[in-house]
Design brief:
Layout (H helix, E strand, L loop, with lengths): L3 H6 L19 H7 L1 E4 L8 H9 L5 H7 L13 E4 L14 H10 L10 H8 L17 E4 L2 E4 L7
Antiparallel strand pairs: 1-2, 3-4
Length: 162
């Protein structure tokens, strides 16, 4: 199964990273008004966008399109009797967004390193020392939190000086 939205926003030369500033779907109101139809989900469609996509488009590669077109955020919310908007497979391309040089310009402006917030030198020193690797309640060596000595029980005593 190929999710076209993910393919469209994947970063060039890196299959594991995605550019979340990239638009992959545009709601095309004129196309929807002109050629859309309805599909009422059946019992075997509950929580199954793959079967819905297969019934409508004879493949499962349009799951992301169905979600975007119908504003479905959680595929598990699909129940019997849900009215879904559908368009013919030939018109799906009208909803896909293509990369443009304008998108690259917006990306360049947003990711301008001169606009980045400077890091406090003390904070940088703290990060460099790897001091954050242990929370304050954990020590570098074994620590017995409860001690019994001379008939007295001590809980957590002297934890910072071990």
């Amino acid at each position: 199964m190929e999710l076209t939205d993910l393919i469209n926003i994947s970063r060039e030369n890196n299959e594991e990273l995605y550019d979340l500033t990239e638009i992959s779907f545009r709601y095309n109101r004129p196309v929807v008004r002109r050629i859309s139809s309805s599909y009422i989900t059946e019992e075997d469609d509950e929580m199954r966008l793959d079967t819905i996509s297969n019934k409508l488009y004879d493949d499962v590669d349009n799951i992301d399109f169905i979600c975007n077109l119908n504003s479905i955020k959680n595929p598990l919310s699909i129940k019997k009797g849900l009215n879904l908007i559908t368009v013919p497979i030939d018109n799906i391309a009208a909803f896909r967004s293509e990369r443009t040089t304008q998108n690259n310009e917006v990306r360049r402006i947003i990711s301008n390193k001169r606009k980045s917030i400077p890091i406090d030198p003390n904070r940088q020193k703290f990060l460099d020392q790897k001091s954050q690797s242990l929370p304050p309640t954990v020590t570098n060596r074994d620590y017995i939190g409860v001690k019994y000595k001379n008939g007295k029980i001590s809980v957590g005593g002297n934890i910072f000086n071990t």
